[in-house]
């Protein structure tokens, strides 16, 4: 609304069609049981951000896991023989390795370089999304049990508070085969289509776009990742101006079925 | 500059720290020899966009390839026996398959599902980046020979026109193992660091971030991908507000060396 109000000329006024990413920087430390929607709404207010219809939110997995109590104190973990065998070869804490194995339903690669697993949800990533950064003390975080449900809970609570229905993506940074560096991807989603299917449509020259399905939720997560980083304490990014499609679609739709996957 | 000018209260004013993505929508059809920087500057002017210090540009590979004459008329292609053998099994034009093989330095997977190759640059992708969409007639586009150089040429020409040094990323949509859907990634880059290395820094709790290198150029390309799509005729996106680091760094730095790659 307000963002479309015309501005004095001479200023940069173009807005329709622009995409805007707005970081929230003042969320306090999250602990088990924290009301994330309350924290997000509070931070937005403090930072002068007014939610608008059409906004969507990308929320970092780390704060979702913390709020849901998905952290594990390493002191309580008794490593299995496999974890004890493998961890020293990669300089990892065997208790961390043990947590990774417990979170997994399949080991994809177990080498001196990395432990790549398929998590119980079906995500394939290093260390099964188990992570030590941004967690106080001798604790690790695991991925939320059901990241779609986490997203949907946050969306519902924000809707109750603000009166605005906004899709929510829960994101985490994953590595990739073939390319270096981590990128932020969508592990949970609520209220929007996670893919944009252009098959059956035509390009400007009348060719049908046969193979073109875009992973929009991953691109949204990646865009938010530019503001989140790991050490910057930006766990929530508001995306304004993306014409998403309303849908009940799980982020798990973005997983390539094992039978179709040539690299598993 | 202008984006920081204070606005009347009651309006949505928060801008510092925001990221803005501005699509250019009025570029005319590009052909061999087209001066891309001229076209981009013209479109920006037409659309009321004033470039600002700190901006960077993401440019779709497709228009770069066309401007550089990297299109091939299929009528001129004589398929090899291998292309003739394989193409019918996947319903592909053998001449297209032939162009893919010519662009490749290694075949990674050749199955009924897809032809995944390593291009002469080192990118691993389906069909070696050879593409039929958005090309008139019986022609295909190949990736630019040296996408970093393409980026750097566009950056230099834009600097001459506008007086502003802006990094340029050349992007293309790639598929991924394990996950469905295409995402836009960086295949060429000029004027900025393509990765953000957080190793050696600490998180909020004093843990050092050992494995954290972010592929910023890929996240920038993905963000731009949200506006580009394939059929939307947005071949250029301006990114405003991303605190990139000046550097002479090739987008090839994002390629994982084969020896370190567990999925090749």
The rounded distance between the terminal residues' Cα atoms of chain A is 47 Å
Let me know the average pLDDT of chain A.
90
Structural class of chain A: alpha+beta
- Strand percentage of chain A lies at 15-25%
Number of domains of chain A: 2
Q: Which word captures the global form of chain A? A: globular
Keywords:
homodimer; three-stranded antiparallel sheet; CofE-like fold; five-stranded mixed sheet; alpha+beta; globular; 6 helices; 60s Ribosomal Protein L30, Chain: A; disordered N terminus; 2 domains; 264 residues
Please write out the topology.
2 copies of one chain form a homodimer.
Chain A: E1 19-24, H1 36-46, E2 56-60, H2 61-67, E3 71-73, H3 81-90, H4 94-102, E4 104-110, E5 115-119, E6 124-126, E7 139-141, H5 147-162, E8 168-174, E9 183-190, E10 196-197, E11 213-214, H6 216-228, E12 236-240
Report on the structure:
2 copies of one chain form a homodimer. Chain A has helices at residues 36-46, 61-67, 81-90, 94-102, 147-162, 216-228, and strands spanning 19-24, 56-60, 71-73, 104-110, 115-119, 124-126, 139-141, 168-174, 183-190, 196-197, 213-214, 236-240. The first copy, chain A, has 264 residues and is an alpha+beta fold. The first copy, chain A, has 2 domains: 19-69 and 144-256, CofE-like (60s Ribosomal Protein L30, Chain: A, 2-Layer Sandwich), CATH 3.30.1330.100; 71-129, CofE-like domain (CofE-like fold, Alpha-Beta Complex), CATH 3.90.1660.10. In chain A, helix 1 (36-46) packs across helix 5 and helix 3 (81-90) crosses helix 4. The first copy, chain A, starts with 18 loop residues before the first strand and ends in a 24-residue tail after the last strand. At the A-B interface, strand 1, strand 9, strand 11 and helix 6 of A face strand 1, strand 9, strand 11 and helix 6 of B.
